[in-house]
Design a protein that fits this description.
Strand content: 15-25%
Number of helices: 5
Helix content: 55-70%
Structural class: alpha/beta
Distance between the termini: 49 Å
Mean pLDDT: 94
Strand order of the largest sheet: 2-1-3-4-5
């Protein structure tokens, strides 16, 4: 099943360009142009990765990032921040809030693909490790219960 990528950017040209690049490489892409639409979409289904513009018309992308990373349901979704601004403090703040990466627009197609692929690999590894940990915890619980029942 292809990875689900959500693009949140109020600039239709940037949004369409990123979407085309990602679709051409087999990703399933949806897009929104505001924080309100983003919240609605994320509440319905979490994407595997989010491309988030720093500037959105209703709420700033950094504020949205902080909200996403503060929510246990969405905190593990990798977020690549996008910006046409050259402000270094914005990239530092974004990374400090939990963004996986920060890209300057216009983004080169190869850079976008490489960073998306890297973050999706990391996410898949994290998911596998969590599944292995859950299995180990279940096995430990089973062994403890078995040991406890033998003591009685």
């Amino acid at each position: 099943m292809p990875s689900q990528i959500l693009i949140a950017d109020d600039d239709a040209v940037s949004r369409d360009a990123a979407s085309s690049i990602l679709c051409e490489h087999g990703y399933e892409v949806s897009s929104v142009s505001s924080a309100r639409e983003l919240r609605h979409t994320v509440s319905a289904a979490l994407p595997d990765l989010l491309l988030l513009d720093v500037v959105l018309p209703d709420v700033g992308g950094l504020e949205v990032l902080a909200q996403l990373k503060g929510d246990p349901r969405s905190r593990d979704v990798p977020v690549l921040m996008l910006s046409s601004q050259a402000r270094e403090d914005a990239s530092e703040r974004a990374l400090g809030l939990g963004a996986a990466d920060y890209l300057r627009k216009p983004v080169k197609p190869r850079d976008l693909l490489a960073r998306v692929q890297a973050q999706l690999r990391i996410r898949a590894l994290l998911d596998r490790q969590r599944a292995a940990l859950r299995a180990a915890e279940e096995e430990l619980s089973r062994v403890r219960e078995e040991a406890e029942s033998r003591r009685k």
